[in-house]
Amino acid sequence: AADKIHLIPQDFFAELCEQIIQHLNHKIPGVNTSELCQRIQTSGVEINICDLAKIANILSFLFSAAARNNLSTEELITTLGSAVSTLPKHAVQVIRHMWNEQGKAIAASEDARNVATVGQFVDMKWKLGVAMSSDTCRSLKYPYVTVTLTVADPSGQITDKSFEMTIPQFK
To answer: Which part of the chain is the COMM domain (predicted)?
Structure first.
């Protein structure tokens, strides 16, 4: 995804960074990558929603980690290190400007320690089953897969998420 950053014009890249920082500051619920992708495509740039979403995730992680570590603008750019040489110049300029202007707000936020926390994958269990019959259907005989994901949310509470799929869905 990082190699796709050069496709995004500077104004759209700046808008993406702005939305990410607003999201990290809890001013907006999230980044609307589908709407932004559509506008970028309308401007004549060939980029798909998956690549833009990956770029948004990378930038979100970058800004939140910088906030968590209370990095200055120069420390952030230095930390990017070798990536700076592969990133287009306009992207580095936008990241530098955005962090310089608005990074302090994230770092100063009382939630700065929790900015980058996301649910943590703990375990996955699955089992294969076959439904032979039910009250409403005499003969089912279709195999299915039951998946149970164990996840620890940011507060540390562990929960199980279960769902069933047909064999083609599982594949």
So the answer is: 120-171
